[in-house]
Amino acid sequence: MGFRKIDLPLARFGRHAKRSYGFCVKFASVAILGLCFVFVWYMFSPSASSVTYQRSTFGEYAEPVSARGQLRKSKSSVVPIKNEPDLNLGKGEKKVVNGSLGVDRVDGTKDHKKEEKGVKIVKEEKQADDNGSEVSESDSENAKENEVDEESEEGENIVDGDSAGAEVDSDQADESDELNAKRRIKRKFKGPLFDPKAEYLWKLCSTRSKHNYIPCIDIEVASKRIQSYRHHERSCPKNPLMCLVPLPHEGYQTPISWPKSREKIWYSNVAHPKLAQFVKTQNWVVESGEYLTFPQNQSELTGGIAHYLESIEETVPDIEWGKNIRTILDIGCKDSSFGSFLFDKNVFTLTLGLKDDLVDLAQVSLERGFPAIVSPFGTRRLPFPSGTFDTIHCGECQIHWQSNGGKLLIEMNRILRPAGYLILSSKHDSIEDDEAMSKLTASIGWNILAHKTDDVSDIGVRIYQKPESNEIYALRRKKVPPMCKENENPDAAWYVPIHSCLHPIPSAIEERGTEWPEEWPKRLHTFPDWMNNRDKLVSDTEHWKATVEKSYLTGMGINWSTIRNVMDMHAIYGSFAAALLEQKVWVMNVVPVYAADTLPIIFERGLVGIYHDWCESFGTYPRSYDLLHADHLFSRVKNRCKKAVTIVVEMDRILRPGGWAIIRDKEPILKSLEEIFKSLHWEIRLTFVQNQEGILCVQKTMWRP
């Protein structure tokens, strides 16, 4: 019995292809296969909207009138003064002092029991009560904001980079996998902002850095291969931080108030083995029992810091500290006496603490009450917009500017204001370094105004000035580095690599950077032509001035003599910082990367700020700030973070024990936040609600699990 031969269609097709008309069959088969491939690709590939790309601008949105617009005429919209506890609240209004924001009670008892250590707190609210992440504002202006946010959802919480299609330099092809991972669109997590049934059982973080842990900078786990304690670039943990940073083992004491903190601080608050070794070799900081003391006018420089700064001003008369020069970036934080002396001249000096294995004095600077951030500075742009700092100073910071094609100096060129100054000082200048630096600065069109060695301090000082027009770029013989492409955004700075190109200097009057700002303090209230929303700026400034004077300074029980380091976690125009100008405080204005890019306006007013994504940890040491201000921060998050509660954990990390937090937001969000703060054993000092909007004032305690 023989087997029957099966005549498959594919075999028959092959035999037909061998005949005289086989060419047509082959051509038809190729076409059919191609169409099939296109069909399969279309059906199973991601949609065009899901392609990972980098946006060049921040999505704009309008701010709510209730928080940033014109002043409310209702007296009840202002937080009541402490001396007037019996306030006639209208229907729908609630106010509790040192109590709970929860359900109204006739007997006036608190709506919570004091939690014991290690006890879980279970949220019993309905899920509908915590829908603040998608709640629309009560006024038309905020409704417009929500529309803008919805239109730009796909691109607003992604890495701030160059515009789509912009080519990256060839030498950036070897970027780390970690950077490539950051260049993806972050999905929005659906559901309520806070899980109403969540249980919070806190524990201490167990990391190598212990009580000084900075999550996105410090390496968490020790390894034989990894000897360093810090990442070379910002790299956050895969899982959001849900533990509490412990207090120093030597004991933590309430920081010494300003201005006494300029002269001495508690040693135990900043204790570090490498710091102890460093102090023994310095004369500007002295260990004195329980304190670190700072002798007046003492610095690493022979002759004192006063002589050093006066000689700079004499060499370049246009450098008028506190008038023409208001905002300075001090790189390295080697000697905090630089910012200390300039503070008396109304100069805002922001110190950039370079995180490496050498001793980092940024924590000492913050403990003394001076502005500082901690950030790596290697291959990525710093989190600042372009053309903002009046002056950049680098004293003995040991940065090799000429290495890697001069990219670090190109980054200084980006953030320095046109006609701004770069001041470098060093005791050990080599001929080779001088020649390389001269060649590099000439290639980017910088003019050297001074290069001298001071007779008293024996310090070599070089002062450079950035060009104020594009004419110098056209006169260069070699166009190296080249000019950046038109579609490259100079203000993109969040996880963006440094590009080896020069951005054109603004030339049109409607562009930012064509004119030097007014002298301080006039520039705080002077709005240039490129600011199109002047009326809104004026209204916002007046609103926050009235709110701070009538509510924050007198109605919350805050002892402002103990407040020095302040952060506005959701700054818009810097008006909150401007309202506190008469107080002895400084304010770090944080503009979220998913919000409208208003940071250039803040710098133009003579204030200082930074870009940040609150789904990640901030670049500072634990226990850095005395007061945190969050105006509608949580309702703007819109579930961008995997766990919104990690923002509260970060607030606990960067706020000092005894520090305060003022939160303005939707009532459902404040209810959830209040329960979370209770689980952290924070004191609820004041709550106030009107028309579904509210304010929550809390104070951190010394409690640790």
TrEMBL record:
Entry's Gene Ontology cellular component terms: endosome; membrane; trans-Golgi network
Family matches, as Pfam families: Methyltransf_29
One BP annotation, GO: methylation
Entry EC number(s): 2.1.1.-
Keywords: Glycoprotein, Membrane, Methyltransferase, Signal-anchor, Transferase, Transmembrane, Transmembrane helix
Matches recorded under InterPro entries: Put_SAM_MeTrfase, SAM-dependent_MTases_sf
Annotated localization: Endomembrane system; Membrane
Record's bilayer topology term: Single-pass membrane protein; Single-pass type II membrane protein
Source organism superkingdom: Eukaryota
Region named Disordered: 74-181
Biased composition (Acidic residues): 147-159, 168-178
Oxidoreductase is among the record's keywords: no
Compositional bias ranges of the Basic and acidic residues kind: 104-129
Chief subcellular location: membrane
GO terms, molecular function: methyltransferase activity
Family: Belongs to the methyltransferase superfamily.
The protein, known as: Methyltransferase
Lineage: Eukaryota, Viridiplantae, Streptophyta, Embryophyta, Tracheophyta
